[in-house]
Amino acid sequence: MPGISFPDLIIPKTPTITSIEFKPPSARIPSFPPIVVPPSDLEQPEGVEAESNTEQPEAPKLQIPVLDIQMPLPEPAVVVTAVTTAVVAVATTSVTSSLFEPIKKKVQKQLQAQVNKWKENRKKKKDSSKNSKTE
Predict the structure, then answer these.
(1) Rounded distance, CA 70 to CA 62, Å?
(2) SS3 at position 101
(3) Residue 74's closest CA among 58, 88, 57, 61?
(4) Does this model's pTM top 0.70?
(5) pLDDT band per the 50, 70, 90 thresholds, residue 11
(6) Rounded Cα–Cα distance for residues 134 and 5 (Å)
(7) What is the rounded distance in angstroms from the CA atom of residue 27 to the CA atom of residue 25?
(8) How far is CA 97 from CA 102, 105, 108, 127, in A?
(9) Which of 61, 65, 101, 117 could cross-link 70 (Cys pair, CB 3.0–4.6 Å)?
(10) CA distances from residue 125 to 47, 70, 133 in whole angstroms, order as listed
(11) Cβ contacts of residue 62 below 8 Å, gap of 6+?
């Protein structure tokens, strides 16, 4: 191949790749203090006596002098819960009744109009059927 000339190939230099340091992700694993559960057959050691103070305090009572009756008083937590529930119930009822009253009136008015229209149509049908029978 004497007459063919091939062009010179220019190959670019390979770029230098900087190394990337890869660190795998890490996570904090939660740790909780162990819960100690006593065995089911737990007994007191020898020489140790059980406490004998198992008295329950007497419930407070309200003395009504005229009737000579003692009424037991409920615990404060029970009273607070009952009062809170009652206040929330009354407030909710008051607010919702004032909000729903106009809606209730509109619905009643629309229903009454439909009932009246139905009655009129029914009466017209009866009248028309009576008129057709008499003729």
Answers:
(1) 5
(2) helix
(3) 61
(4) no
(5) confident
(6) 122
(7) 7
(8) 9, 12, 15, 43
(9) 61
(10) 101, 74, 12
(11) 70, 71, 72, 73
